[in-house]
Amino acid sequence: MSYIDELGQQAKKASLNLAKLATAEKNQILRQAAANLLAQTDDILAENARDLASAKEHGISEIMTDRLRLDLARIEGIAEGIRQVADLQDPIGQVVRGYTNLDGLKIVQKRVPLGVIAMIFESRPNVSVDAFSLAFKTSNAIILRGGRDAINSNKALVRVLRETLSDFGADANAVQLVEDTSHAVAEELMQAVDYVDVLIPRGSSRLIQTVKEKSKVPFIETGVGNVHIYVDESADLDMAVKIVINAKTQRPSVCNAAESLVVHEKVAQDFLPKLETAISQVHPVEFRADARAQAIFKESKPANQEDYAREFLDYIMSVNIVDNIDEAIDWINTYSSHHSESIVTTDIRSAEHFQDNIDAAAVYVNASTRFTDGFVFGLGAEIGISTQKIHARGPMGLEALTSTKFYINGQGQIRE
């Protein structure tokens, strides 16, 4: 029996055991898990320090290292995310609809768990806890495969979760960590159709592409964010500067950070110098611009076609000037990864036109794209941000981790 077969069998058994837990029991376990994580902060940070030291040895950039770093505030945020999930309504058992058909059969459609979820993710160790809390609340077992760079942090976090489950007499295999971080084992997990009901990859475009090519398990595409901000001709330029700076520089290593800027030609001459001056006071940003924008910036580099579609995850931003809002919409829809897009405008018709016609999971008016987050949206933690057009789109909370089942009750009916 292979390593993944063993984990899969244990997860399958755990998923059946989870169905026996009442909502109150699940909530109690989640709240205790949050408390236990806080109580073991020092141990978790010590393991995280090992990962950070290894990242430094391997020359990982500071921006990418930030995704890996844990501190007291981030652990408190992780614990708060668990508590939020515990406070949310449990969707399992909810009646989606109920009716009596023409044959007199009483038919009820209810929400049920997916079963076993596998998650492959990179760098960010908080994902292991976020994913567990959502999966557990919806009575799903989860197999986690994090990146090599966060292995010690993930081990420490999952150890606390498993110990909490065991303390309550619940099946600790409701959450399992793949400790072999080789690509071969990851690919085996992608093909574990006998055990895994759905796979959720969360990470780089390379990871997502690998899953597309190798996975036999149904998967939900998440995460890659070529995020745009469009500054309309009627925009409040001071507001636009504030929004662009926040969306680009607050945390450039995350998927809801802005990567691309689109500007109406009527405001470009005023806006771009204003932005360039203001953003340099926060953090230098390399602008890769089209010819018209280059003529306005004091410093920029010429953009190539690949730059317009790239998720930089760095202090780099592509810039394009357009003649009207429809050109902006066409441009964004061409290069978008369908994650999050924003317009800055004072024209309500432009705002509505933009939101109606942009093809993305989250479309903002006069706000930073950094808000695309399950925690911020009131979903508690999130297991990922779906960029697909399936049952789940945008930040994936509890309902996204459920399926439905039909319950049919009769009185001896047969079909003629």
From TrEMBL:
The record ties this protein, via InterPro entries, to: Ald_DH/histidinol_DH, Ald_DH_C, Ald_DH_N, Aldehyde_DH_dom, G-glutamylP_reductase_CS, Glu-5-SA_DH, GPR_dom
Q: What does this protein do?
A: Catalyzes the NADPH-dependent reduction of L-glutamate 5-phosphate into L-glutamate 5-semialdehyde and phosphate. The product spontaneously undergoes cyclization to form 1-pyrroline-5-carboxylate.
Q: Which UniProt keywords apply?
A: Amino-acid biosynthesis, Cytoplasm, NADP, Oxidoreductase, Proline biosynthesis
Which gene is the coding source of this polypeptide chain? proA
Q: Which PANTHER family match?
A: DELTA-1-PYRROLINE-5-CARBOXYLATE SYNTHASE, GLUTAMATE SEMIALDEHYDE DEHYDROGENASE
Q: Which family does it belong to?
A: Belongs to the gamma-glutamyl phosphate reductase family.
Report the SUPFAM superfamilies cross-referenced here: ALDH-like
Q: Which domain of life is it from?
A: Bacteria
Coiled coil (residue ranges): none
What EC number(s) would the UniProt record show?
1.2.1.41
List the protein's name.
Gamma-glutamyl phosphate reductase
User: Where would you find this protein in the cell?
Assistant: Cytoplasm
